[in-house]
Amino acid sequence: MSQTYINKLNYQDFVNPNKPNYITKEFEKLIREIGDCKSKLDEDRLIEQQIIKLKKFTKKKKIKPKQQSELVLRLLFCQLLGHDVSFAHILAINSSQESNLFYKFIGYLAASIFISTNEDLQLLMINSIQKDLKSDNTLAVSIALTTITKIITVDMIPAVLSNVLILLKHQEPLIRKKALTAMYTFLKQSPESILKHQKDFELMLDDKDISVTGVALDLFLFISKTKPKTIKHLVVSFVEILNLIISGKLPIEYDYREIHAPWIQIKLLKILSYLGQDDPNTSREIYQVVQLVLKESEIGFINGIFAGHAIMHECIKTITKLYPSTKLLELASIAAGKFVTSYSNNLKYLGITALTDLVLVYPEATNKHQIIIVDCLEDPDETLKRKTIELLFRITNKSNISFIVEKMLSYLKTQKDQKYKTSLVSRILKLAEEHGTNIKWYILTINKILQIFGDLVNHDIVYNIMKLISEGSLLEDEEDEEDEDDEEEKESGKEGSQLTKYDGNTALKIFSVNIYAEIISLKKPYPNILYQISLWVAGEYSYLCTNFTTEEIMVNVVDLINAFYISDETRAMAITALTKMVSHSGKYLEQIDTIIQKYSTSRNTDIRQRCFEMKGILQLPNIIDNILPPDSINTDIEIDTNLEFLNEFVENSLKNGGKKYISKEERIKMENELQLGINENKKKSKELRFEAYQSNNPQQSSTWRIPQQNIYEREVNNNQISNTIEIENSISLKVSGISQRWTETGYSGFKENENQNIENKKEKGEEKNTNDNNQNNQNNNNNNNNNNQNDNNDNNNNQINQNNNEKILDVKSFRFNRIGSKEPILEEENKIQEKNLNNDNNNNITTIKQKPPKTEEELKREKTVNALFNGVGSVRTSRKKSKSQKVNLNSKHITKNTIEKNNEKVENLIDLGSEKN
Amino acid sequence: MIKFILIVNKLGQTRLAQYYTTGLSINKRVALENEITRRCLSRKDKECSFLEFRDLKVIYRRYASLFFLVGVDEEENELGILEFIHCLVETLDRYFENVCELDLMFNIDKAYMILDEMALNGNIIETNKKNIIAPLHIIDQVSKKLK
C-alpha cells in the first residue's frame, strides 16, 4: 500500500477543501453537518430534516436552474445515504434538459443514479438524450452516451442505435470510446440485434487510440464468452495487439507502474482464454504470446504494487483454460508457487485460487507446496483459510486423507458460522467416504466428527455406518492396519488375536461394538446421533463385544436411559437396544424392571410403546429369539407384496357375496361420475318426476318419485301425508302400490331394503339371491335380468360398472344399487337402459354434459310444479339425503332418455297444477 | 465484471456509490452496504484485501479514513481491481490536489464523473489520467462562468 496516499487522504485535513464556486452556504452547511455525524442515527435524522426542506422547494413552480442543480445535488446526497427521494426525481430530468452544459451534466448524473429505483424516468429522458447525441458539443454527446449506458432498456435501443452507430466514427477518441461503451450496453441487452454490426466494431480494434481499442475489447470479451466461434478469425489480431503492448510501443501515459496498459493486457488474456478453450488449434496460436506475457509480467514485481502480479495471475488462469500444454502448465505452477510462497496475504490468496484451478488440469502443481498450503489454514485470515479449504478438498487423495481431515477438523472447531460449518461437515464426511482406505479409520473419524459436530450432521450418515458395520469387512485392510495402527493393536492384543479367528465381517463387528460400547460407558453428553449409532451397534452385536460383558453394557445403557442429556428418540432406541441385549444374551437385570416401570408412563408415546414391547417380549422367553434374532439386519425377510396368503380369505368372502375390491383410481373415477350424475339429476329431476303422476301405473310413479328426495329436507311432517295423498288422488294417480310402503314413520320400503342389505352381507350368497329375486319379483316385474345373479342385477341398473361380472365391494354403491334394482322400471325404459349399457360409459357422461341449460320457460314451469308438489316431496325425503342422491343417480339415464317424451306430459301436468291452485 | 464501487469512511458512512447492476432497491442497497462495510472494517491490515460475500467478491483498499470497496464477479482479476482502485485514487488526487474526504463530498458530481470516465458497464474503460481529467476541465470552465 502506498504510504504517500495514506498521508494525503486525511480526514482531519478538511480545512481547505476544493470548494466549488457554485456551492451555496446552505449546501455547505449540509455537507459539513453530514461530515460531523458520528452515528447512523444522527445522519438519518439530519437527512430526514433535509428531505422535509427539499419537499417545500419542489412544490415551487419555478426554480432557477442554478438552484435546481443545487437541489439535485442535495437529493443525490440523500439517496446516497439511503433515503428515498423519488418525490423530486423530476428535478433531475428538468435539469438535464437545461441548455447549460453544467446543469445538464448534473441532471444526467443524478437521473442516472436515481433511475435504478424509478423506471418511469427512462422514458422521460429518451428525448433529451436523442437531442444531445446530435449536439455539436463533444462533452454533451459524451455525457449523453454515458447516461445511455446506465439507463437504457431493450425497448429503447432502436431509438438511439442509429445515432450511436454514427458516433462510432466520431473524430474525438472520447466519443468513439463512449459510443462503444453504449454499444456494449446494447449488446448485453439484446445480443442478436447488435451482432449485425459486428463489422463496425471490428474496425475499432485498429483504432489509433489504444483506449478505444481497450473498450472494443470489452465487446469482444462478451462475444467470446457467448459465441466464441464467430470471432476465431480475430485471434491473430488479439495476439498482435498483445504483442504490441508488451513491446512497449504505447504512449507512456498508458503505463501503470512501469507495466504497459495492464488492464488491457488482462482483457486480451481473458478473450484469448475463452477462444482457446477446448480448441487445440487456436490454443497453439496463443501459447507463445502467453508465455511471453508471463515472462514480461515478472519485471513489474515491485513492493506494494501488484500490477505485474495481476497479469501473471491472469496468465495462469489463461493457461488453465487453454488446451493443456505441459510446458505452460509447468510455468504456471512455478508462477503459482511464487504467489503461495509470497509474504503478502493477497498474493497467497491468489496463489491458492490459482492452484485450485490448476490442480484440475495439472495435479502435480501442488506437490511442492503442500506444506505451505496447509500452513495457510493456520493463518488468522478467514478469507485465505476458506480458499485453502477449497483447495484441500481438491488435492485430497488416499495418501493424505487422514492428515487433511485432521487439519480440517481443527479448523472447523474455530468456526462460528453455523451454515458454513454444516456444509463443511457434510463435505468432510463425503471426503472421508470417498478417499478413506481403511474402515477402522473411517469409523473412528466419523465418531470423532460426530462427537463434536453431531448436531450438524445429516442423519443419512447413521444408516451408512449401520450398513457398513453390518456388511463391511475388515480383512481387506488388515495389512494396512498392522503398519498404521501398531499401538492400537498392542492395546487390544486380545482383540488382535481374535481378529484372525473370525471372518472380516465379524472382526469389523467386534471392532465397532468395542468402540461403541466404550462410547456408551463414557457417559458424556455427546450429540444424540452418536449415541443412536452406539446403541444400535450395542444392541445388535453386544454378544460379540470383547472389552465389555453384556451385563456391563446393559448397566451402561440403563444409566444412559436415565441420563438427562439424551433426547427421547435416543431414549426409545436405548430401550429397544436393551430388549435386544436381553433377548440375545438371555441375561436379565433388575434395573430393567425399574426402567419399564418408570418409562411406561412416559409422555412420549414412542418410549411408552417400546417399554410395553419390551415388557411383552420379555414375558415370552420361548419366542424371544424369533422376534429379535441376532444380526437381523442381514437376514432377508421375504415380503409377499401380493399378500397371497389372503387369497383364500378373499375368495371365501367373494363366494359369500362380498364385493370385489375396487382400486383407488377406479373409485375416484366412479365418484367423479357419481358427482356428474348427481349434478345432472338435480337439474332434471324437477321436470321428470311429473311423469309418475300422469301414469296409471303406481309402480311406475314410484320410479319417478325417488329423484325428488334430494330436493327437500328429510324432516317428515306427518300432517302432510294426508294432504299428499289427496293431491295425488286429485291428479288421478293410483296410490294403491304406494300406500303399502308409505307409512306414518316414512318410507317403509327403504327400511326394508336397508335391513336386507345388512343381512345380505351376513348371509350366504344363495340365500341372498333368493331374497333378492323374491323382492325383485315383487317389486319389479319388468326386469328381465333379475333372473340372473344378483350382481348382474346391480350392473344393469348401474351404468358405471363396465363389466357385468364384476363384483362390487363398495357398500354405498351396493346399497343404492339394491334400492335401484327394486324400483319398478317400465319395460320401454329398461330397453333404453340396456342399450345405454352397451355403449361406452364415457359417452353417456358426455351426453349428459352436453345437455343444454334450461330455458327460462322450463325454469318457470319447474317453479310452478314445485310449489304444487311440495308436500309430496317432503314426505318422500324421509331418508338420508346422500342415499337419495344415489337413487337419483341410478335413475339418471332413464330420466335423460325420456326427457323429450316427457315434455308433453309435463306441460299437461302444469295445466292440471294450475287448475288445482 | 464490476458490480459496484463504494467509497465509505471509517465510520461506515457512504460517500460515493456506483452500481453497475440494476434491480436493487434502496433498502436492500443500504443493507448490503452496511454488511459489506462492517465486514471490511473489521479486517486487519495484514489480512488480504479480498472478501468473499454471497456470490460476489469484494476487493477493498484503505486510504487513511476512506475505504474503497469494489464488488466483482467470479471471473474478474482481483489484483487488477486492486490496482484499479489505486489508479482511481491517484486520479482523484491529481484532479483535487491532495484529495480528502470533504473534497469528495463537496465535489460529489466531479467524483462521479471521474468514476464514469474510468469505468462503465462494470468494465474498466480508461486508466490514462490525462484522458480522464480532460472532460472534467471543460466542465470546470463552464461552471466557473456561472453566476
Automatic annotation (TrEMBL), chain A:
Residues 53-471 form the Clathrin/coatomer adaptor adaptin-like N-terminal domain. It is a peripheral membrane protein. Residues 751-770 have a biased composition (Basic and acidic residues). It comes from the Eukaryota. Residues 475-490 have a biased composition (Acidic residues). Residues 771-805 have a biased composition (Low complexity). The keyword Signal does not apply. Residues 475-498, 746-809 are annotated as: Disordered. It is found in: Endomembrane system; Membrane, Coated pit. Keywords: Coated pit, Endocytosis, Membrane, Protein transport, Transport. The keyword Acetylation does not apply. Transmembrane segments: none annotated. Adaptins are components of the adaptor complexes which link clathrin to receptors in coated vesicles. Clathrin-associated protein complexes are believed to interact with the cytoplasmic tails of membrane proteins, leading to their selection and concentration. PANTHER family: ADAPTIN, ALPHA/GAMMA/EPSILON. Belongs to the adaptor complexes large subunit family. This is AP-2 complex subunit alpha. It comes from Anaeramoeba flamelloides.
TrEMBL record, chain B:
Keywords: Membrane, Protein transport, Transport. InterPro entries: AP_complex_ssu, AP_mu_sigma_su, Longin-like_dom_sf. The keyword Transport applies. Residues 1-141 form the AP complex mu/sigma subunit domain. The keyword Membrane applies. It holds the Pfam family Clat_adaptor_s. Gene3D superfamilies: 3.30.450.60. It is found in: Endomembrane system. Belongs to the adaptor complexes small subunit family. PANTHER family: ADAPTOR COMPLEXES SMALL SUBUNIT FAMILY. This is AP complex subunit sigma. It comes from Anaeramoeba flamelloides.
